[in-house]
Design goal:
The chain is mostly beta strands. Helix content is 6%, strand content 50%. Strand 17 (391-405) and strand 18 (408-419) form a beta hairpin. The chain is globular and about 65 Å long.
Length: 457
């Protein structure tokens, strides 16, 4: 028996010695944000506050853990995990004894590798993707394949992603263009699908000027086969002295497809819409001035048309949309918002297919560990439905904070919005103004106070 054990041990040692040595590196990073909110508008469900609205408060926290299994600079696996909790919510582990049923969410898990002897980087799996429109089309974690190349001054990529498979995922609920009310034709996978194809290219004319172009296609299959939304656009980024400038334009055309209520005869809706925007940051003293404008075309009847056309800009997921450069809290959701914090119109930049015109500006920075900022923004719909106003409102907000350690900050954020006539009339959720409710003025001006502790490692 001892001889057999020795023989097995020797064989194992020989086989292990035959395996080439390979350096392997484990990398961990992440963050934990804890934020308390007090506000007079309900930011869970139907978000509009009504007349003489009572105040409410909640405390949320979000942890994200990043793990990279790195073999070399040419090969690694990247993963992101997220844990959200609302204090007092038993389902999220935020109640007494903190025993909840909330699971660890998988944000990203993908391979990132360079193809040998070819200037192509590959990402395949679940990864984050954002558009060239400052999130006005899509900013999301997607399942897909992305091939990126860089040749001299040119950088480009090709992306394929499967956004939804209704047969196995069921009907989505976050407002994907004209998909939410579609019934899957089968419980089998691979038939009722919505895919995203993106082609992007940028060329650096010099170190201060880069131009780009893009094409995105939302392509439906099966029960979604009548959906083909094309987006084609161009952008330019420039550095002029202390200013960093970025501008973009996008045009959409194609067919939205039947599925929503009131689309005449179940026919597909022909789309013709556009988006245009510009952002700028100017270094001034210890901080930066930020300025911007955004316009998303709207339609006076949305996509519930009887004439088979729509001029409303379409987003991949309007119910969870952001526009981080605005630095707003109420009229546009803030980039550091956590689980339950929403904008006044429930995070929908398209305002229920009415579109958006927004301008904003501010000054933000840090000096001697003091974090500060002040911003102002105005928003209105680009189009109105019958019997509606257009002005959503004007927001002012400010931030004061302190950097306790290099990777730990505490901030107080205050925001107040003076509602326009449309904002006062707003009811329901997802930007749904009540048709014919013009000048009812049923909402108080919303306010929000936030204390945020942010830790990163």
């Amino acid at each position: 028996m001892k001889k057999k054990i020795l023989a097995i041990t020797a064989a194992a040692a020989i086989s292990m010695s035959a395996v080439p040595a390979m350096a392997f590196e484990n990398q961990f990073s992440g963050m934990l944000n804890v934020g308390g909110y007090a506000t007079n508008y309900n930011n869970i469900g139907s978000v509009h506050n009504g007349k003489d609205a009572p105040s409410m408060n909640n405390i949320d926290q979000r942890a994200r853990l990043k793990y990279i299994a790195k073999v070399s600079d040419d090969l690694q696996m990247v993963s992101w995990f997220e844990i959200n909790s609302q204090w007092g919510n038993a389902a999220q582990g935020g109640t007494l004894d903190t025993d909840g049923t909330a699971s660890i969410r998988v944000k990203n898990v993908y391979l990132d590798f360079n193809i040998p002897k070819i200037p192509v980087n590959t990402k395949v799996g679940l990864f984050h993707w954002t558009d060239d429109y400052k999130m006005a089309f899509a900013d999301a974690d997607v399942a897909g394949l992305q091939l990126t190349t860089k040749i001299d001054k040119f950088t480009g990529y090709f992306l394929y992603s499967r956004l939804y498979d209704l047969g196995v995922a069921g009907t989505p609920t976050n407002g994907v263009p004209n998909v939410t009310s579609v019934t899957p034709s089968t419980s089998l996978s691979g038939r009722d699908t919505l895919d995203l194809v993106a082609v992007n290219g940028k060329y650096a004319i010099d170190k201060n000027l880069t131009v780009g172009a893009n094409y995105y296609a939302l392509v439906g299959g099966g029960a979604l086969r009548d959906r083909l939304i094309n987006t084609i656009g161009a952008n330019v980024s420039a550095k002029i002295g202390p200013a960093d400038l970025y501008g973009y334009f996008g045009y959409q055309f194609g067919d939205i497809g039947p599925g929503l209520a009131n689309v005449a005869n179940g026919k597909s809706v022909n789309l013709s819409a556009f988006a245009v925007g510009a952002t700028g940051t100017i270094t001034a003293g210890p901080g930066k001035v930020n300025l911007g404008v955004l316009y998303l075309s709207g339609d006076d009847k949305g996509i519930n048309r009887t004439d088979g056309t729509s001029g409303a800009w379409q987003m991949v997921s309007p119910g969870t949309s952001y526009y981080n450069d605005a630095n707003m809290w109420i009229i546009i959701r803030n980039k550091i918002s956590l689980v339950s914090s929403r904008s006044f119109d429930n995070n929908d930049l398209t305002n229920g297919q009415r579109g958006l015109f927004a301008v904003y500006g501010g000054y933000n920075g840090e000096y001697n560990k003091i974090i500060y900022g002040a911003n102002i923004g105005y928003a209105q719909t680009a189009a109105t439905h019958s019997g509606e106003n257009s002005s959503i409102g004007t927001e002012i907000n400010g931030t004061i904070g302190y950097r306790i350690y290099d990777n730990l900050t505490a901030k107080i954020n205050l925001a107040y919005a003076v509602l326009g006539d449309a904002g006062k009339d707003l009811v329901g959720s997802n930007g749904a103004w009540t048709t014919g409710a013009k000048n009812t003025f049923s909402n108080d001006d919303p306010w929000l106070a936030n204390l945020m502790v942010e830790y990163s490692f």
